[in-house]
Protein backbone atom coordinates (compact mmCIF):
# COMPACT_ATOMS: atom_id res chain seq x y z
CA UNK A 1 0.00 0.00 0.00
CA UNK A 2 1.32 3.40 -0.97
CA UNK A 3 0.85 6.30 1.42
CA UNK A 4 1.57 10.01 1.17
CA UNK A 5 2.73 11.98 4.20
CA UNK A 6 2.43 15.73 3.66
CA UNK A 7 4.78 17.50 6.03
CA UNK A 8 6.69 14.23 6.35
CA UNK A 9 10.02 15.99 6.92
CA UNK A 10 8.57 17.89 9.88
CA UNK A 11 8.48 17.11 13.56
CA UNK A 12 5.45 14.79 13.89
CA UNK A 13 5.51 13.84 10.20
CA UNK A 14 9.03 12.42 10.26
CA UNK A 15 8.24 10.25 13.30
CA UNK A 16 5.15 8.97 11.47
CA UNK A 17 7.33 8.22 8.42
CA UNK A 18 9.77 6.24 10.61
CA UNK A 19 6.92 4.08 11.86
CA UNK A 20 5.30 3.61 8.43
CA UNK A 21 8.64 2.61 6.89
CA UNK A 22 9.27 0.11 9.70
CA UNK A 23 5.80 -1.35 9.08
CA UNK A 24 6.70 -1.96 5.44
CA UNK A 25 4.59 0.68 3.66
CA UNK A 26 5.60 2.42 0.46
CA UNK A 27 5.98 6.02 1.61
CA UNK A 28 6.02 9.25 -0.37
CA UNK A 29 6.75 12.50 1.46
CA UNK A 30 5.70 15.92 0.19
CA UNK A 31 7.35 18.76 2.11
CA UNK A 32 8.50 22.28 1.27
CA UNK A 33 11.19 22.12 3.98
CA UNK A 34 9.97 25.40 5.48
CA UNK A 35 9.70 23.99 9.02
CA UNK A 36 10.88 20.44 8.40
CA UNK A 37 14.37 19.42 7.38
CA UNK A 38 15.97 16.70 5.27
CA UNK A 39 17.93 15.66 8.36
CA UNK A 40 14.70 14.29 9.85
CA UNK A 41 14.26 11.81 6.98
CA UNK A 42 17.84 11.48 5.71
CA UNK A 43 18.01 7.87 6.91
CA UNK A 44 15.26 6.88 4.40
CA UNK A 45 16.28 8.91 1.35
CA UNK A 46 17.87 6.00 -0.54
CA UNK A 47 15.43 3.33 0.58
CA UNK A 48 13.58 1.64 -2.31
CA UNK A 49 10.17 2.03 -0.64
CA UNK A 50 10.73 5.75 0.03
CA UNK A 51 10.24 8.75 -2.20
CA UNK A 52 10.77 12.42 -1.35
CA UNK A 53 9.09 15.26 -3.23
CA UNK A 54 10.09 18.78 -2.36
CA UNK A 55 7.25 21.18 -3.07
CA UNK A 56 4.92 23.86 -1.79
CA UNK A 57 1.30 22.71 -1.48
CA UNK A 58 0.03 26.15 -2.46
CA UNK A 59 0.91 24.93 -5.94
CA UNK A 60 -1.96 22.70 -7.15
CA UNK A 61 0.07 20.87 -9.79
CA UNK A 62 2.56 19.67 -7.21
CA UNK A 63 -0.24 18.38 -5.00
CA UNK A 64 -1.88 16.56 -7.92
CA UNK A 65 1.42 14.86 -8.71
CA UNK A 66 1.90 13.89 -5.07
CA UNK A 67 -1.44 12.03 -4.71
CA UNK A 68 -0.92 9.96 -7.86
CA UNK A 69 -1.23 6.19 -7.07
CA UNK A 70 -1.77 6.91 -3.38
CA UNK A 71 -4.27 5.02 -1.21
CA UNK A 72 -3.89 6.85 2.11
CA UNK A 73 -2.91 10.47 2.70
CA UNK A 74 -1.63 11.54 6.11
CA UNK A 75 -1.99 15.32 5.93
CA UNK A 76 0.42 16.82 8.45
CA UNK A 77 1.77 19.74 6.44
CA UNK A 78 0.83 22.89 8.33
CA UNK A 79 2.10 26.03 9.90
CA UNK A 80 2.18 24.96 13.57
CA UNK A 81 2.62 28.39 15.21
CA UNK A 82 -0.37 29.68 17.21
CA UNK A 83 1.38 32.95 18.08
CA UNK A 84 0.53 35.75 15.68
CA UNK A 85 3.52 37.95 14.98
CA UNK A 86 5.97 36.43 12.58
CA UNK A 87 2.94 34.57 11.16
CA UNK A 88 0.42 36.79 9.38
CA UNK A 89 -3.23 35.67 9.22
CA UNK A 90 -2.80 35.37 5.46
CA UNK A 91 0.13 32.98 5.86
CA UNK A 92 -1.85 30.93 8.41
CA UNK A 93 -4.79 30.78 6.00
CA UNK A 94 -2.62 29.71 3.08
CA UNK A 95 -0.54 27.14 4.96
CA UNK A 96 -3.47 25.54 6.79
CA UNK A 97 -6.66 26.13 4.78
CA UNK A 98 -5.61 26.76 1.17
CA UNK A 99 -3.21 23.81 1.07
CA UNK A 100 -5.91 21.56 2.53
CA UNK A 101 -8.33 22.74 -0.17
CA UNK A 102 -5.70 22.03 -2.83
CA UNK A 103 -5.20 18.57 -1.37
CA UNK A 104 -8.95 17.86 -1.31
CA UNK A 105 -9.29 18.93 -4.95
CA UNK A 106 -6.49 16.54 -5.86
CA UNK A 107 -7.89 13.75 -3.67
CA UNK A 108 -11.36 13.87 -5.20
CA UNK A 109 -9.90 13.41 -8.68
CA UNK A 110 -7.66 10.53 -7.58
CA UNK A 111 -7.94 7.03 -6.16
CA UNK A 112 -7.24 8.08 -2.57
CA UNK A 113 -9.43 6.09 -0.17
CA UNK A 114 -8.49 7.59 3.20
CA UNK A 115 -7.41 11.01 4.41
CA UNK A 116 -5.97 11.36 7.92
CA UNK A 117 -5.66 14.93 9.19
CA UNK A 118 -3.89 16.34 12.24
CA UNK A 119 -6.07 19.11 13.59
CA UNK A 120 -5.57 20.74 16.95
CA UNK A 121 -7.03 21.24 20.42
CA UNK A 122 -7.14 24.94 19.55
CA UNK A 123 -10.43 24.37 17.64
CA UNK A 124 -12.13 24.24 21.08
CA UNK A 125 -10.93 27.72 22.11
CA UNK A 126 -11.52 28.50 25.81
CA UNK A 127 -13.71 25.44 26.42
CA UNK A 128 -15.73 25.65 29.62
CA UNK A 129 -15.89 21.86 29.84
CA UNK A 130 -12.61 20.18 30.85
CA UNK A 131 -11.67 17.49 29.96
CA UNK A 132 -13.12 18.54 26.60
CA UNK A 133 -14.79 15.76 24.58
CA UNK A 134 -14.98 15.60 20.78
CA UNK A 135 -18.68 16.54 20.78
CA UNK A 136 -18.08 19.78 22.71
CA UNK A 137 -19.91 22.73 21.15
CA UNK A 138 -19.93 25.42 20.03
CA UNK A 139 -16.45 25.28 18.56
CA UNK A 140 -15.17 28.81 19.07
CA UNK A 141 -11.44 29.09 18.36
CA UNK A 142 -9.71 32.10 19.91
CA UNK A 143 -6.71 32.17 17.53
CA UNK A 144 -6.47 32.55 13.76
CA UNK A 145 -4.51 29.29 13.84
CA UNK A 146 -7.37 27.48 15.62
CA UNK A 147 -9.85 29.00 13.17
CA UNK A 148 -7.77 27.82 10.23
CA UNK A 149 -7.59 24.27 11.64
CA UNK A 150 -11.36 24.24 12.14
CA UNK A 151 -11.92 25.52 8.59
CA UNK A 152 -9.69 22.72 7.29
CA UNK A 153 -11.66 20.14 9.33
CA UNK A 154 -14.94 21.44 7.92
CA UNK A 155 -13.71 21.29 4.32
CA UNK A 156 -12.42 17.76 4.82
CA UNK A 157 -15.75 16.63 6.26
CA UNK A 158 -17.72 18.21 3.42
CA UNK A 159 -15.50 16.71 0.73
CA UNK A 160 -15.44 13.23 2.30
CA UNK A 161 -19.22 13.11 2.51
CA UNK A 162 -19.58 14.38 -1.05
CA UNK A 163 -16.82 12.48 -2.80
CA UNK A 164 -15.76 8.89 -2.49
CA UNK A 165 -13.23 8.79 0.36
CA UNK A 166 -13.19 8.53 4.17
CA UNK A 167 -11.56 10.96 6.57
CA UNK A 168 -10.13 10.62 10.07
CA UNK A 169 -9.46 13.82 12.01
CA UNK A 170 -7.23 14.00 15.09
CA UNK A 171 -7.41 16.94 17.48
CA UNK A 172 -3.98 16.94 19.07
CA UNK A 173 -2.97 18.30 22.47
CA UNK A 174 0.53 19.84 22.71
CA UNK A 175 2.81 17.32 21.03
CA UNK A 176 6.43 17.28 22.18
CA UNK A 177 9.55 15.21 21.65
CA UNK A 178 12.75 14.78 19.66
CA UNK A 179 13.03 16.93 16.48
CA UNK A 180 10.51 19.54 17.69
CA UNK A 181 11.84 22.93 16.74
CA UNK A 182 9.34 25.26 18.29
CA UNK A 183 7.20 25.53 21.41
CA UNK A 184 7.69 26.11 25.08
CA UNK A 185 10.39 23.47 25.84
CA UNK A 186 12.47 24.40 22.82
CA UNK A 187 12.14 28.10 23.70
CA UNK A 188 13.09 27.58 27.36
CA UNK A 189 16.20 25.54 26.49
CA UNK A 190 17.37 28.21 24.04
CA UNK A 191 16.66 31.05 26.44
CA UNK A 192 18.61 29.29 29.21
CA UNK A 193 21.55 28.60 26.93
CA UNK A 194 21.71 32.32 26.15
CA UNK A 195 21.23 33.37 29.78
CA UNK A 196 21.58 30.61 32.41
CA UNK A 197 20.86 33.04 35.25
CA UNK A 198 17.34 34.10 34.26
CA UNK A 199 14.41 32.56 32.43
CA UNK A 200 11.72 34.69 30.83
CA UNK A 201 8.31 33.03 31.03
CA UNK A 202 5.57 34.42 28.82
CA UNK A 203 2.30 35.09 30.64
CA UNK A 204 1.88 34.39 34.36
CA UNK A 205 3.14 30.78 34.22
CA UNK A 206 -0.21 29.30 35.34
CA UNK A 207 -1.18 28.29 31.78
CA UNK A 208 -1.98 24.61 32.21
CA UNK A 209 -2.10 22.20 29.29
CA UNK A 210 -1.88 18.55 28.43
CA UNK A 211 1.31 17.33 26.67
CA UNK A 212 1.70 14.14 24.67
CA UNK A 213 4.99 12.62 23.57
CA UNK A 214 5.37 12.23 19.81
CA UNK A 215 5.95 8.45 20.18
CA UNK A 216 2.53 8.06 21.86
CA UNK A 217 1.02 10.35 19.23
CA UNK A 218 2.25 8.35 16.24
CA UNK A 219 1.18 5.11 17.90
CA UNK A 220 -2.27 6.61 18.52
CA UNK A 221 -2.65 7.85 14.95
CA UNK A 222 -1.80 4.45 13.44
CA UNK A 223 -3.72 2.40 15.98
CA UNK A 224 -6.90 4.46 15.60
CA UNK A 225 -6.52 4.55 11.82
CA UNK A 226 -6.62 0.73 11.76
CA UNK A 227 -9.69 0.81 14.02
CA UNK A 228 -11.39 3.46 11.82
CA UNK A 229 -10.74 1.42 8.66
CA UNK A 230 -12.68 -1.52 10.08
CA UNK A 231 -15.73 0.70 10.70
CA UNK A 232 -17.93 2.42 8.17
CA UNK A 233 -18.03 6.07 9.17
CA UNK A 234 -17.27 8.54 6.37
CA UNK A 235 -15.71 10.97 8.85
CA UNK A 236 -14.65 10.59 12.47
CA UNK A 237 -12.93 12.75 15.10
CA UNK A 238 -10.56 11.74 17.90
CA UNK A 239 -8.82 13.78 20.56
CA UNK A 240 -5.26 12.66 21.30
CA UNK A 241 -3.71 13.93 24.51
CA UNK A 242 -3.08 12.97 28.10
CA UNK A 243 -5.21 12.48 31.19
CA UNK A 244 -3.07 14.91 33.17
CA UNK A 245 -1.81 18.43 32.53
CA UNK A 246 1.10 20.60 33.60
CA UNK A 247 1.67 24.32 34.08
CA UNK A 248 4.22 26.39 32.18
CA UNK A 249 5.96 27.14 35.50
CA UNK A 250 6.34 23.41 36.21
CA UNK A 251 7.79 22.96 32.71
CA UNK A 252 10.27 25.76 33.47
CA UNK A 253 11.27 23.92 36.67
CA UNK A 254 11.83 20.61 34.86
CA UNK A 255 13.86 22.25 32.07
CA UNK A 256 16.04 24.11 34.62
CA UNK A 257 16.58 20.98 36.70
CA UNK A 258 17.52 18.87 33.66
CA UNK A 259 20.01 21.56 32.58
CA UNK A 260 21.46 21.68 36.10
CA UNK A 261 20.53 25.36 36.51
CA UNK A 262 18.76 27.47 39.11
CA UNK A 263 17.65 30.52 37.12
CA UNK A 264 15.44 33.31 38.44
CA UNK A 265 12.05 33.14 36.75
CA UNK A 266 10.84 36.41 35.22
CA UNK A 267 7.16 36.37 34.27
CA UNK A 268 6.12 38.82 31.58
CA UNK A 269 2.55 38.85 32.91
CA UNK A 270 1.30 38.35 29.39
CA UNK A 271 -2.06 39.46 28.03
CA UNK A 272 -5.75 38.85 28.78
CA UNK A 273 -5.26 37.46 32.29
CA UNK A 274 -1.84 35.87 32.07
CA UNK A 275 -1.87 34.29 28.62
CA UNK A 276 1.46 34.07 26.76
CA UNK A 277 -0.02 35.93 23.80
CA UNK A 278 -3.35 36.90 22.29
CA UNK A 279 -5.11 33.67 21.37
CA UNK A 280 -3.09 31.48 23.77
CA UNK A 281 -5.56 29.00 25.31
CA UNK A 282 -4.82 29.10 29.02
CA UNK A 283 -6.31 25.79 30.14
CA UNK A 284 -6.41 22.77 27.83
CA UNK A 285 -7.05 19.13 28.67
CA UNK A 286 -8.87 16.94 26.19
CA UNK A 287 -11.03 13.96 27.03
CA UNK A 288 -9.27 10.94 25.52
CA UNK A 289 -11.95 8.41 26.47
CA UNK A 290 -13.01 7.85 22.85
CA UNK A 291 -9.42 7.10 21.79
CA UNK A 292 -8.90 4.83 24.80
CA UNK A 293 -11.98 2.78 23.88
CA UNK A 294 -10.11 1.70 20.72
CA UNK A 295 -7.38 0.17 22.91
CA UNK A 296 -4.81 3.00 22.71
CA UNK A 297 -3.41 4.76 25.73
CA UNK A 298 -0.41 7.03 26.30
CA UNK A 299 2.66 5.40 27.85
CA UNK A 300 4.05 8.68 29.22
CA UNK A 301 1.99 11.24 31.17
CA UNK A 302 2.51 14.98 30.65
CA UNK A 303 5.29 15.24 33.25
CA UNK A 304 7.17 12.22 31.88
CA UNK A 305 6.72 13.45 28.30
CA UNK A 306 8.15 16.87 29.23
CA UNK A 307 11.17 15.38 31.02
CA UNK A 308 11.86 12.91 28.19
CA UNK A 309 11.61 15.74 25.62
CA UNK A 310 14.02 17.98 27.52
CA UNK A 311 16.56 15.13 27.59
CA UNK A 312 16.03 14.35 23.91
CA UNK A 313 16.42 17.98 22.84
CA UNK A 314 19.49 18.50 25.04
CA UNK A 315 21.20 15.39 23.67
CA UNK A 316 20.56 16.42 20.06
CA UNK A 317 22.18 19.84 20.57
O1 LIG B 1 8.84 31.00 25.38
C1 LIG B 1 7.72 30.59 25.73
C2 LIG B 1 6.89 29.81 24.88
C3 LIG B 1 5.66 29.39 25.36
N1 LIG B 1 5.25 29.72 26.59
C4 LIG B 1 3.92 29.26 27.07
O2 LIG B 1 3.86 27.86 26.96
C5 LIG B 1 2.56 27.41 26.57
C6 LIG B 1 2.66 26.44 25.42
O3 LIG B 1 3.08 27.12 24.25
P1 LIG B 1 3.62 26.36 22.96
O4 LIG B 1 4.13 27.38 22.00
O5 LIG B 1 4.50 25.24 23.36
O6 LIG B 1 2.30 25.64 22.37
P2 LIG B 1 0.84 26.15 21.97
O7 LIG B 1 -0.07 25.73 23.10
O8 LIG B 1 0.80 27.56 21.54
O9 LIG B 1 0.55 25.27 20.64
C7 LIG B 1 0.88 23.90 20.46
O10 LIG B 1 -0.20 23.08 20.71
C8 LIG B 1 -1.35 23.38 19.97
C9 LIG B 1 -2.39 22.36 20.33
O11 LIG B 1 -2.63 22.35 21.69
C10 LIG B 1 -1.13 23.49 18.48
O12 LIG B 1 -1.49 22.38 17.76
C11 LIG B 1 0.22 24.05 18.08
O13 LIG B 1 0.58 23.72 16.76
C12 LIG B 1 1.31 23.67 19.02
O14 LIG B 1 2.47 24.45 18.77
C13 LIG B 1 1.77 28.66 26.25
O15 LIG B 1 0.78 28.85 27.22
C14 LIG B 1 2.78 29.78 26.23
O16 LIG B 1 2.26 30.98 26.74
C15 LIG B 1 6.06 30.48 27.42
O17 LIG B 1 5.73 30.79 28.54
N2 LIG B 1 7.28 30.89 26.96
Protein topology:
Blueprint: E1 2-6, H1 11-22, E2 26-31, E3 50-54, H2 60-66, E4 72-75, H3 89-108, E5 114-120, H4 144-162, E6 166-172, E7 174-176, H5 184-194, E8 198-201, E9 208-209, E10 211-213, H6 214-230, E11 235-240, E12 246-247, H7 248-258, E13 264-267, E14 283-284, H8 289-293, H9 302-315
Helix pairs in contact: 1-6, 3-4, 5-7, 7-9
The structure holds galactose-uridine-5'-diphosphate.
Describe the model.
Strands 3-2-1-4-5-6-11 form a seven-stranded parallel β-sheet, with helices on both faces. A three-stranded mixed β-sheet has the order 12-9-14. By secondary structure, it is an alpha/beta fold. Helix 3 links the parallel strand 4 and strand 5. The two termini are 36 Å apart. It has nine helices and 14 strands. The mean pLDDT is 97. It is globular, with a radius of gyration of 19 Å. 37% of the residues lie in helices and 19% in strands. It has two domains: 202 residues, 3-Layer(aba) Sandwich (Rossmann fold); 92 residues, Alpha-Beta Complex (UDP-galactose 4-epimerase, domain 1). Bound molecules: galactose-uridine-5'-diphosphate. The site of galactose-uridine-5'-diphosphate has 20 residues, from helix 5. Pfam families: Epimerase. Belongs to the NAD(P)-dependent epimerase/dehydratase family. It comes from Thermococcus barossii. InterPro entries: Epimerase_deHydtase, NAD(P)-bd_dom_sf.
